[in-house]
Design brief:
Blueprint: H1 2-22, E1 26-31, H2 39-54, E2 59-64, H3 72-81, E3 86-90, H4 113-120, H5 123-131, E4 137-152, E5 167-170, H6 174-182, E6 186-189, H7 195-199, E7 205-208, H8 210-215, E8 224-240, H9 241-246, H10 249-283, E9 287-289, H11 294-300, H12 313-325
Helix pairs in contact: 2-10, 5-12
């Protein structure tokens, strides 16, 4: 009996050791404001797949989409408070939490996708991600919303003078409000989603990347599209800092690498579909100005760096870093 009892005890001890080394599965709550098939959701779904595989099932990602965790500001509040562990959020709403993030959406900063990648994947981008820690976030990667373009229902817009007095919905971002005020519009901040807001007719237009216009069928809500590309809009993929630092070093590496790979995958997907989406918008009846007078937009926004928004020492220092990297 003693030998059987000893054997059982030894087996149970081995089982406990094996279970401890494997790690208990944990649920990771990840939130995006947009629907399945959106840029944010594509990144989130790829991350879930990669993180589960790389951790051998130890990380099980539960995805909350379509605003089920609130608008993007509310998602960031939940992320900060630890109710969720990870989020993929447009840069704009980070503004009120970490002012340095506004430099990413400085108007007409990036010439093309390759330029944006070089800066955001380099030292300037990493400096932004590092700055998030003071607000309780762990910056993991930049995925992509895309270059933002103007749509409206009132008139074709070819040059900046035709923006005057248009009521334009903008993100909850101080920079976006300043930008459109300088351009002569009447910016109206409103969180996502905005389709019902547009349909109600209280505003003339909005600005968003091509994928948003197609996936949310803005061709049914807006008549004129002007390819202004006035801002390159990134998504910041971020974790709750305390949660991230509570993970073993190996799992921290898994989370970081999985999100970086997911972000690269999503950027490629987004860019690979842009021409198709633009063609569909035209076929659906949107009037598209593909070659507006961008010089007129540049001229009106030439002094935007002198705004109080960019006078804080940390913000100014980071803007200089971005500007120098963009030359």
């Amino acid at each position: 009996m003693r030998s059987v009892s000893s054997a059982c005890t030894w087996f149970l001890l081995l089982a406990c050791i094996w279970t401890g080394s494997a790690g208990a599965a944990q649920t990771v709550k990840l939130a995006v404001v947009t629907k399945p098939g959106s840029a944010q959701a594509i990144c989130a779904e790829k991350f879930a797949e990669l993180a589960s595989a790389a951790s051998q099932g130890e990380l099980q990602v539960e995805l909350f989409h379509s605003g089920s965790m609130g608008n993007e500001t509310e998602i960031l509040q939940k992320l900060q408070g630890g109710q969720i562990q990870i989020a993929v959020v447009t840069v704009g709403p980070f503004d009120e939490f970490v002012p340095e993030t506004r430099v990413v959406e400085f108007p007409f900063l990036f010439k093309n996708h390759a330029h944006a990648d070089r800066v955001l994947d380099g030292k300037p981008g990493q400096t932004v991600l590092d700055a998030l820690e003071k607000a309780g976030f762990k910056g993991l990667a930049f995925s992509e919303n895309g270059f933002r373009h103007l749509t409206n229902n009132k008139r074709p817009v070819h040059d900046a003078s035709q923006v005057k007095d248009l009521k334009i919905r903008v993100m909850n971002s101080a920079l976006q409000e300043e930008l459109w005020t300088i351009l002569g519009a009447r910016p109206i901040p409103h969180p996502w989603p905005i389709d019902e807001f547009l349909a109600a007719g209280g505003i003339d237009g909005q600005e968003n990347p091509i994928w948003v216009l197609w996936e949310y069928r803005f061709d049914k809500l807006q008549r004129y599209l002007t390819l202004t590309g006035h801002v390159y809009s990134a998504h910041i993929c971020a974790a709750n800092l305390n949660w991230f630092e509570s993970l073993p070093a190996a799992l921290q590496g898994t989370v970081r690498r999985a999100m970086q790979e997911a972000a690269l995958y999503q950027r490629s997907y987004n860019r690979g579909h842009e021409k198709e989406y633009l063609t569909r918008l035209k076929e659906a009846g949107m009037q598209v100005d593909e070659h507006p007078d961008l010089d007129s937009f540049h001229a009106k926004t030439a002094d935007i760096a002198s705004l109080p928004l960019f006078r804080e020492p940390d913000v100014k220092r980071l803007l200089d870093l971005f500007m120098n990297a963009s030359r």
